[in-house]
Specification:
- The chain has one domain.
- With 106 residues, the protein is mainly α.
- The protein has a two-stranded antiparallel sheet.
Length: 106
């Protein structure tokens, strides 16, 4: 019953908000598939307590705002820079964590 109530509630939202939510969910799904477990995506509703806290803490007023290790990317126009930053961080981590490093057993 909870999903049905939630779906009915979503239908009352303005069309532009529904489209923005779908776009964000698609982006999250594609990003997680692209990086296969190396990236964790959390979507936080800006009207929730956690959302308000993040808005105050990171000082953003526009959505969507993406946070990557404390760095802020505001709006969909920043998404290509966000993807580049994710790729750069993962490349940097690959260099510091060698998959061929010996594993010590205790």
């Amino acid at each position: 019953m909870g999903d049905k109530v939630h779906l009915e509630e979503i239908k009352t939202y303005p069309q532009w908000l529904i489209e923005e939510y779908v776009k964000l969910c698609d982006w999250a799904r594609e990003t997680m598939q692209r990086y296969q477990g190396w990236v964790l995506v959390r979507i936080v509703d800006q009207q929730s307590l956690a959302g308000w806290w993040r808005m105050l803490r990171y000082r953003f007023r526009r959505t969507p705002t993406f946070l990557l290790e404390g760095e802020k990317f505001v709006g969909w126009e920043a998404e290509p820079r966000l993807q580049a930053a994710i790729a750069a961080r993962l490349t940097q981590r690959e260099r510091t964590i060698s998959p061929h490093a010996p594993v010590s057993a205790s």
